[in-house]
Write a structure and sequence with these properties.
The chain has 196 residues and is α+β, with helices and mostly antiparallel strands. It has a domain of 133 residues: Beta Polymerase, domain 2, CATH 3.30.460. The protein is 40% helix and 16% strand. The chain contains 6 helices and 7 strands. A 5-stranded mixed sheet has the order 1-2-5-4-3. The protein starts with 9 loop residues before the first helix and ends with a helix. The model has no long low-confidence stretch (mean pLDDT 96).
Length: 196
């Protein structure tokens, strides 16, 4: 098999989820304290939206994705480093490892508002004005903007997240009209193939 198997452990599985939650709160708390505008995006944002409808449909994620404005990067770096994160720029991406031994797949991943992650993408990331405060003290991207990011990236995991949102009724056949043609076609494909 090529890998070393540890024991079956529900505790280890729950621990993985708890670590992501702790990183999210530590990072967003540091940014809030430093007055750095941000919003939670990615799998955590999808999870938060899905949980508003049906917590049994929540899918966990291994990292924390945040959107900030590029001009806030230095202030965000100072804030995140003050709570133990370590900045890295790799493969054109900005991320913060959880300590010097942190792994990229468990990091805080930064995307920039009003910019494309990759040049070929059809639209830029949303502005932070398209976010709202959650009662637990962090900011999260509004649903329409989150769906736009997922349609723009459209990787396997993005398609899974879009299907999760559709499965609980957060997006439906009325939604493709909200987006430019290329994104609308992608969303229609998701809606037409709910099981992949």
């Amino acid at each position: 098999m090529g890998v070393t198997l540890g024991p079956f452990s529900l505790e280890r599985a729950l621990n993985a989820v708890a670590k992501v939650r702790e990183r999210l709160f530590r990072a967003t708390g540091a940014l809030k304290a430093a007055n750095v505008p941000y919003a939670v995006v990615g799998g955590n944002a999808v999870m938060l939206w899905v949980s508003r409808v049906d917590e049994t449909s929540v899918r966990n994620t291994q990292d924390v994705d945040l959107v900030i404005r590029r001009e806030s990067l230095d202030a965000a770096r100072a804030a995140l480093e003050s709570v133990g994160f370590v900045y890295r720029h790799a493969d054109g991406l900005d991320l913060f490892l959880d300590g010097t031994e942190g792994k990229p797949r468990e990091a805080i991943h930064i995307i920039f508002a009003n910019e494309k992650v990759r040049d070929h993408e059809p639209v830029a990331n949303p502005d932070l004005s398209e976010s709202l405060d959650a009662p637990e003290g962090y900011r999260v991207l509004m649903l329409e903007a989150l769906v736009r990011i997922k349609l723009t990236a459209f990787r396997d995991k993005d398609r899974v997240h879009l299907r999760d949102l559709a499965k609980v009724g957060l997006i439906d056949q009325s939604w493709p009209a909200k987006y430019p043609a290329e994104l609308a076609d992608r969303l229609q494909l998701i809606l037409d193939t709910p099981n992949g």
